[in-house]
Every structure is written in C-alpha cells, then in structure tokens.
Specification:
Elements lengths: L2 E7 L2 E10 L2 E7 L4 E7 L17 H9 L7 E7 L4 E7 L8 E9 L2 H42 L16 H10 L2 H6 L3 H16 L1 H46 L9 H5 L1
Antiparallel strand pairs: 1-2, 2-3, 3-4, 4-7, 5-6, 6-7
Helix pairs in contact: 2-5
InterPro entries: NHEJ_factor
Keywords: DNA damage, DNA repair, Nucleus
Family: Belongs to the XRCC4-XLF family. XLF subfamily.
C-alpha cells in the first residue's frame, strides 16, 4: 500500500510503497507525477544500511517491518538531490529506547510506462470497480423502490416516519453529489464526464480486441436488424398492395344496381 511520507521533494508531497517480488525488495516513491524506485535483492539488502547505524538489525526483521509500514508511525523520511540522482533516507525507530536505524537509498527515475503500470492503471481499475459497485447499488435501490411501491399497493403502511424515503432518482443523486463538492466542480467543471470517459478509454486501451469484436458483433446485429426491418417493410408493402388489389377486384366485381321505387312512392 502507498503511505504518506509527510515530506516534500521539489515542493510536492511524496508517497512511499514497499513490496517484494522474486526475492527482490522494491522501494517506490512518487509525487503523483513521477515515479522513483530502488530495487535490491534480499541477499544484498544490508548494503543499504547506513554506516552510521549504531545497532545491528537482522535483514528479515527490517523487511517484515517495511511490509507493515502502513501501520507504523515511527518512520521519518529525508529526500535530497545528489549530483546525478535523487536519494532518500528512511530513518526507522524499531523500538523505544533504541537508537534509530537508517536505510540509504539511491533512487532511479522510472519511465512513463512504469508510472502507468504502477499508478495510473491501478487507479483506473479501482475507479472502474467503484463505478460498477455504484451501478449495482443503484439497481438494488431501484428494486427496493418497486418492492415498497408494491407493498403499499396491497395496503401496506410504513408506520415509522424516520425510515420513510422518497423514490430514488439517479440524476438528482449526481446533481446533489456535485453540489456537495463545489470545490472540485470549480476546478474541474466536467468532473463526472471525465470520470465516465476515463473508464471507457481504459477499457478500449486495455481490451482492444474485445472492443473490436464487440463492434463487429454490434455491426452484424445492426445489419441483421436492418435486413429484418426491410423484410418486415416489404412484407407490409406486399400486404398493402395485395389488400389494395383485392379491394380493386372487389370493387370491380360489385354490380351497383339502383333500387326501384315502390308503387306507393311512385304515386307520390
């Protein structure tokens, strides 16, 4: 997990993440614009120990501590620019009464692809999941409203005034949400549109083949609908023509005869 360092570098707040992969320990730092990293094999972990450390600590204990750093408060960070790189110090107080223990890291600036894979992509995945959770919740609320309406139709009554609710309107919900976050809306006028379109673009980038297949299926379905519509229209036209012809035939086959007046009417 990412944790705040409560420190800044070049006037921007820095976040820290520690992870392990294939016996490598990975230190990641970011200001949400760039990613700085240090990867080191467990067998060489002691090489990042500061020469000024006054206590010896087993590597496994330090790694275990870093894995749970989100719950730890006794860590200080220091960032500074060296001639060719950025350096970071982690100053850890493992236990009260003992001197602090320091790790010295020489960080590497990662390229934009790694930044995307480590930060942008996970954030988009989270937003996508939250959006899906929101839609699922909307469906549940809609069903609950229908359930309450049916309950009232059969004579049911909600006696507790404190739990009575209005019918849920999704559009009103979004409008109220934006009004409650006027600071964000003022900074980003089209906040919800950005929120929605980012997910759509992420899906296109992430699954281009699926989208192509989906578009192909949609095109086929549209073509089938058009063909079906044409067949139906042709059938209707045929029926109209057939009906019209029948009517013409019927009309031509009718012999209109004038009725003769009765003798009584003639005398009048």
């Amino acid at each position: 997990m990412w944790v705040s360092t409560n420190e800044t570098f070049n006037n921007t707040p820095m976040l820290f993440q520690f992870s392990q992969k294939n016996n490598f320990c990975i230190f990641n730092f970011t200001n949400m614009k760039q990613l700085y990293s240090k990867e080191i094999h467990e067998s060489l972990f002691s090489s990042i120990y500061s020469s000024t450390n006054k206590i010896e600590v087993d590597v496994k204990n330090v790694i275990e501590y870093l894995k749970n750093i989100g719950e730890m408060k006794n860590v200080n960070y220091n960032f500074y620019q060296d001639e060719l790189s950025i350096k970071a110090d982690l100053i850890i107080t493992l236990s009260e009464g003992f001197p602090p223990f320091k790790l010295e890291l020489e960080l590497e600036l990662k390229d934009e692809n790694i930044f995307y894979s480590k930060l942008t992509c996970p954030l988009l995945k989270i937003i996508k999941q939250l959006k899906q959770n929101q839609e699922d919740l909307f469906d549940v609320i809609k069903k609950k409203d229908l359930e309450i309406s049916e309950y009232k139709l059969v004579g049911g009554n909600i006696s507790n005034e404190n739990i009575k609710t209005e019918i849920f309107e999704k559009d009103n919900f979004f409008m109220n949400s934006l009004q409650n976050h006027t600071d964000l809306v003022e900074e980003i006028p089209y906040l919800y549109e950005i929120y929605s379109s980012l997910i759509e673009q992420y899906n296109i980038i992430r699954h281009p083949d699926v989208n192509k297949e989906s578009n192909s299926i949609s095109t086929k379905e549209e073509n089938q609908k058009i063909q079906t519509k044409n067949i139906i229209n042709n059938s209707i036209d045929h029926k109209i023509i057939k009906s019209s012809t029948t009517m013409e035939i019927t009309n031509t086959s009718i012999n209109v005869k004038k009725r003769k007046k009765s003798s009584l009417l003639k005398s009048l």
